[in-house]
Write a structure and sequence with these properties.
The chain has 292 residues and is of the alpha/beta class. The chain has one domain: Alpha-Beta Barrel (TIM Barrel). 46% of the residues lie in helices and 13% in strands. It is built from twelve helices and eight strands. It has helices at 21-34, 53-67, 82-95, 112-125, 136-139, 145-151, 167-174, 189-198, 212-223, 227-243, 251-259, 279-288; strands spanning 4-8, 38-41, 73-76, 99-103, 130-134, 157-162, 183-186, 202-205. The protein has an eight-stranded parallel beta barrel with strand order 1-2-3-4-5-6-7-8, surrounded by five helices. Strand 7 (183-186), helix 8 (189-198) and strand 8 (202-205) form a beta-alpha-beta unit. The longest helix is centred in the C-terminal third of the chain and has 17 residues, at 227-243. The chain is globular.
Length: 292
């Protein structure tokens, strides 16, 4: 089972929107050296919604090539059409990904039975470990714990990223007492420390883009049950947890990485650069975390 700090890595882009492959490679090297436990390639933070299929798969392929034998790579392969999700997941498998992360179908708002059949179809079609991803604030669709329990019985489904941001939901999921091989991951940095102390297996993180070493140490301490150390580190990270969302993700985190000279300043429409009124706020959060 993958555990610890799992970065939802950005996809670096030049100001014209072209992918900066060299910066992507450098980011992977940096995360490995800083102790990041795994990488999610082409998740929400990686601007999956604006990458073409060929680019999407190429990002996965390059991250896998650089990280191979060092840390696991989880490929974002979710889609609101089941057939498309199957195709992307199969491509991720061929690209060498260790697992896939599949967001709930967005916009079409399926009922719980639809969610179950959607994920069941993908699991049966592609023999690759698959992690469910619930983020109702973005998708308009909330996968309930009872549905997670049903899906956890399927062999290929090995975990859940829960990004509702409510500790009460984490408690509900942990109370299911799912098989020990099923991972439950926080998808909300602000509550990740407490979630792991409660029994989650790690955090799929935006903050880890900017402070990978501290996120690794915080998650490791929480996994060991060392509340004092985990909470002390997390207190330094809380401004980042909060202020990397002053505008929609990944606008602030890409600005922060550009300020750290890690990536160029590129985003793709409909995202636009961070408003200058937020510069000081994000910079102060970076200082509090020791990122600059």
């Amino acid at each position: 089972m993958i555990k610890g700090s799992i970065v939802a890595i950005v996809t670096p882009m030049f100001p014209d929107g072209a992918v900066d492959w060299d910066s992507l490679t450098a980011l992977v090297d940096w995360h490995i050296s800083e102790g990041t436990d795994a990488i999610v390639a082409v998740g929400t933070t990686g601007e999956s919604a604006t990458l073409g299929v060929d680019e999407h798969v190429e990002v996965i392929r390059r991250v896998v090539k650089r990280a191979k034998g060092k840390i696991p790579v989880i490929a974002g392969t979710g889609a609101n059409a089941t057939a498309e999700a199957i195709e992307l997941t199969a491509m991720a498998k061929d690209a060498g990904a260790d697992a896939a992360l599949l967001v709930t179908p967005y916009y079409n708002k399926p009922p719980q039975e639809g969610l179950y059949r959607h994920y069941k179809a993908i699991a049966e079609a592609v023999e690759l470990p698959q992690i469910l991803y619930n983020v109702p604030g973005r998708t308009g669709c909330d996968m309930l714990p009872a549905t997670v329990a049903r899906l956890a019985q399927l062999p290929n489904i090995v975990g859940l990223k829960e990004a509702k941001g409510e500790l009460s939901r984490i408690r509900e999921l942990l109370a299911l007492n799912l098989d020990h091989g099923f991972g439950i991951y926080s998808g909300d940095d602000a509550t990740a420390c407490e979630s792991i102390l409660m029994g989650c297996h790690g955090d799929i993180s935006v903050t880890a883009n900017v402070a990978p070493g501290k996120m690794h140490r915080m998650c490791a301490a929480a996994l060991e049950g060392d509340r004092d150390t985990a909470e002390r580190i997390d207190a330094e990270l809380q401004p980042l947890h909060r202020d990397l969302f002053v505008e929609p993700n990944p606008i602030p985190v890409k600005w922060a990485l550009n300020a750290m000279n890690k990536i160029p300043a590129g985003l793709r429409l409909p995202l636009v650069p961070l408003e200058p009124t937020h510069y000081d706020t994000v910079r102060a959060a970076m200082r509090a975390a020791g990122a600059i």
